[in-house]
Amino acid sequence: MNGYPVARNTLLLASSLAALSGMLQLGVAVATTSLVLVTGIEGILGLGPAIFLVAGAASALPAGRLMDRYGRVPVLAGGFGLGVAGCLLTALACGIESAPLLILGFVAVGSAMGIALLARTAAGDMYPPERRARGISLVLFGAVFGAILGPTVFSPLFAGRELDAQALVVPWLAAAGIVAVGVLLVLAVRPDPSLARPLAQDAVEEPAAPLREILRRPGVPTALLGALASFAVMVAVMNLTGYMMVGQGHMQSDVFPVISAHVVGMYGLVLVVGDLIDRIGRRTALVGGLAVMGLSTLALARTESILATGVALFGLGLGWSFSYVAATSELVDLARPSERGRLIGFNDLLSGSVGGALALLGGLAYTHAGRNSIALGGAVAVALPALWIALSPRPPAPLQEAPA
């Protein structure tokens, strides 16, 4: 690639996602309980993760457009910086038990997550189409180390403590420190990944098409549906699992090993997953991953122990790994480098918005009908798109990138 430091920048981006993953585990474990503890209203248990997801969705599209205009690094660094501010605000809100401030902190943290996950756009820039799934997987693999970091940092902070709003202050301060490391890692990425493909091809990039035109390209709607179903169901079920476990009589500290198992499922095998996707094809991997997600979600109807719940969440993460990496790779294939930020951002807008709605509805369903409603609803929400995708025409070949 004409001297572009692909390996170095891949390592830096992967390490930044390790920091994000560490903070994410705290949000997943306590978002459902934080608002309940601060407000005392149990019926809004799904509102915490819904705020995270909707804020991330709302930030993704404008952040993607900014990436196409100004580059990947400035936008990613700004997202991580917003995450630091959000964690500090959330810690303050828990300390003074202020619901409005807590919501503001959640919005900032959710927006940061939405922006930081656009790092996979940068990964798509650095790798050619035939190795793109592996390249995206290499960057996502960094989140595995966050699965180790999260329990190591946060479980001791909750051990032996009564769960109340004050007990959440120090963990959120620790999360702010972890995300601050992510800012430094992103700023070290040089040159910007958006320069990788044109630099390799020695050509002027074609102007970006309008988003509506991109969305009408053959294969794009199918890939969007797969990504939406995969991400929305995964985040909704993941965010509600912690509260369901506490409702079954488990301690809050017991949630972190289960969330870690889920993160390992999402990212632990992602290097193998990326290679398999490149070999067996995007469509096969997408449909198969959604099928695994459906079976894993159904299994939650019967799990009670920490081990069984961890296994189900691992399967949910593994299915997501196949389906989401395949869908993202296909979207990147079908967009030019100057279009990728906006397309991936639009995908995240849809996925996060639907995920937030599912988390909110899932919280209400759990309150009135129990965990079986979440297990069955989640399974149906991935099974129907999988069937539609399996019966759809095959997508076209990847777009040519800046001819030599």
**CATH topology heading:** Growth Hormone, Chain: A
- By CATH's scheme, which homologous superfamily applies? MFS general substrate transporter like domains
Outline: globular
Count of separate DSSP helical elements: 17
Question: Spans of 5+ residues with little confidence (pLDDT < 50)?
Answer: 199-204
The number of distinct structural domains comes to: 1
Distance between the termini: 13 Å
Helix content: over 70%
The whole-number mean of residue pLDDT values reads 85
> What is the name of the CATH architecture?
Up-down Bundle
Report the biggest beta sheet as strand number plus sense, adding barrel if it closes.
Answer: none
Overall SS class: mainly alpha
Structure commentary:
The chain is mainly alpha-helical and 404 residues long. It has a single domain, classed as MFS general substrate transporter like domains (Growth Hormone, Chain: A), CATH 1.20.1250. Helix 3 packs antiparallel against helix 8 and helix 11 packs parallel to helix 14. The longest helix is centred in the N-terminal third of the chain and has 34 residues. It is globular, with a radius of gyration of 20 Å.
